[in-house]
Each structure stands twice: as structure tokens, then as C-alpha cells.
């Protein structure tokens, strides 16, 4: 089987981390792969005998993706057996079975984090992905329940929990030799739906009750200018 994998968000934060974690495992299988994305970013994968990289600079969710996706790339995709997108964007003109990952569907549950127009557009993309997908992957039973609530129960939704990266496995192997510092760590960005504000409130309340651990935030420094 030859599987096309959309890797255009390989260098992104959330989806990119997910994709960078999945791709080595996928390409180590017995299947063949066509990877779409930045050829330089995917150079190491192109060295594998079962992998072909197609340089594709079309931006996800762009008008070009939706209407004018390059015919040469579409032709290469449609010669493969399955198309997989790690997000809910699907280029125009794909005629083979499509699988997508919808990580969550937070926007209709928290409409305050976007505008009415933004919510409307996102829901169009969500519904389009649901309609075109042969099957949908998501990361938790909770996300599955919300996808079914907002989009329907007609399609198969497969829960594939996010796995631990190798760095965490290496840490666990050496954990006994690492000195603990009584620190809670938050890793991520500070978008409202990530819950950092709630966590800070809980930490402050715990400190008032005598909790003495430290709190460390690992993120880009400049993002706190708007927090």
C-alpha cells in the first residue's frame, strides 16, 4: 500500500509535534509513502527506500488549497492508495480514500475564543473534513464525544491516544538519578483554551493552603506580552 501523508505543517507547533512523532513510526512500516511538504524539512525521510517526497508549498486552509491545488501534485496523490491529513484540511481534487485527524473541536464549545465569522469558517472546514473523510482519528474519548456531538455519528472515529516521545522514555529510564526540585511544569502556549489562567488560579489557591512547590512555565518568552 502507498500512503500519502500531508506534511506541510511539519514545522508547526501543535500539529507539527504530533506529525513529527508519528512520521518515523509510519515510515518504518512495510508500506510505501508519498510525503507532501517542504523538501528540505523532510530530507531525512527521503533517504528511506519506501519514501518519496513531493515539494509542496501550498498553505493549508488557503484558497489555492481549496480551489487551485496543483494538478501535478493531485495526480501524484491520486496514484496512491490512501491520503492522510494530520489536521482537518483537505486539498481539492483528491479521489482516493481520505483519513484525517481532528485533535479537538474546541471552537463551538468555546465560541468566545474566536469571532462569529471565525467560528463559521472553522465549522465549514470541520464539516467538510467530516464529510470527505473515510475515517477520522482523534486523541481522546472526550474529543470523540464532542466530534460526534457537533458533526454526527455516521463516520468511524478512531481514538489513537498521543504517545510519549523518546525524550520522555529516556528520562524515565534515568529518573532515579535525577534530583527532584519540587516543581510543577507547564509546557505550551497561552491561548485561552489551553487553561493556563485556570491553572495559575489553582496554584495561587494551593499556595494559600500551604502548598510550597514552585511553578515553571516553559514557552516562548515573547508570548507573555499579551497575557
Rg, alpha carbons: 20 Å
Shape: globular
Tally the structural domains. 2
Order of helices and strands: EHEHEHHEEHHEHEHEHE
How far is it from the N-terminal to the C-terminal residue, by CA? 47 Å
Summarize the structure.
The chain is an alpha/beta fold and 227 residues long.
Protein model, in words:
- The structure is a single chain.
- By secondary structure, the chain is of the alpha/beta class.
- It folds into 2 domains: 158 residues, Glycogen Phosphorylase B (Rossmann fold); 48 residues, no CATH class.
- The chain is built from 9 helices and 9 strands.
- A 7-stranded parallel β-sheet has the order 3-2-1-4-5-6-7. A two-stranded parallel ribbon has the order 8-9.
- The mean pLDDT is 90.
Q: Which labels suit this protein?
A:
seven-stranded parallel beta sheet; alpha/beta; 227 residues; Rossmann fold; single chain; 9 strands
Walk me through the topology.
Elements: E1 2-6, H1 14-27, E2 32-37, H2 43-46, E3 51-55, H3 63-66, H4 71-78, E4 82-85, E5 98-101, H5 106-109, H6 116-132, E6 135-138, H7 141-151, E7 156-159, H8 166-173, E8 183-187, H9 196-208, E9 214-218
Parallel strand pairs: 1-2, 1-4, 2-3, 4-5, 5-6, 6-7, 8-9
Amino acid at each position: 500500500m502507498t500512503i500519502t501523508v500531508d506534511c506541510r505543517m511539519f514545522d508547526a507547533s501543535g500539529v507539527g509535534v504530533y506529525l513529527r512523532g508519528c512520521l518515523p513510526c509510519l515510515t518504518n512500516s512495510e508500506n510505501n509513502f508519498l510525503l507532501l511538504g517542504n523538501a528540505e524539512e523532510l530530507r531525512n525521510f527521503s533517504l528511506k527506500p519506501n519514501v518519496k517526497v513531493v515539494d509542496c508549498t501550498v498553505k493549508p486552509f488557503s484558497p489555492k488549497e481549496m480551489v487551485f491545488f496543483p494538478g501535478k501534485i493531485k495526480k501524484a496523490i491520486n496514484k496512491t492508495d490512501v491520503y492522510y491529513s494530520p489536521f482537518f484540511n483537505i486539498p481539492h481534487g483528491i479521489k482516493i480514500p481520505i483519513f484525517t485527524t481532528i485533535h479537538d473541536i474546541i471552537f463551538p464549545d468555546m465560541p468566545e475564543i474566536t469571532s462569529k465569522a471565525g467560528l463559521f469558517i472553522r465549522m465549514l472546514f470541520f464539516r467538510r473534513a467530516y464529510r470527505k473523510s473515510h475515517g477520522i482519528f482523534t486523541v481522546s474519548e472526550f474529543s470523540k464525544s464532542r466530534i460526534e456531538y457537533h458533526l454526527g455519528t455516521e463516520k468511524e472515529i478512531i481514538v489513537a491516544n498521543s504517545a510519549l516521545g523518546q525524550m520522555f522514555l529516556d528520562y524515565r529510564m534515568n529518573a532515579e538519578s535525577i534530583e527532584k526540585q519540587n516543581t510543577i511544569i507547564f509546557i505550551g502556549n497561552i491561548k485561552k483554551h489551553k487553561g493556563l489562567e485556570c491553572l495559575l488560579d489553582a496554584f495561587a489557591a494551593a499556595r494559600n493552603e500551604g502548598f510550597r512547590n514552585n511553578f515553571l512555565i516553559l514557552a516562548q518568552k515573547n508570548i507573555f506580552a499579551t497575557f
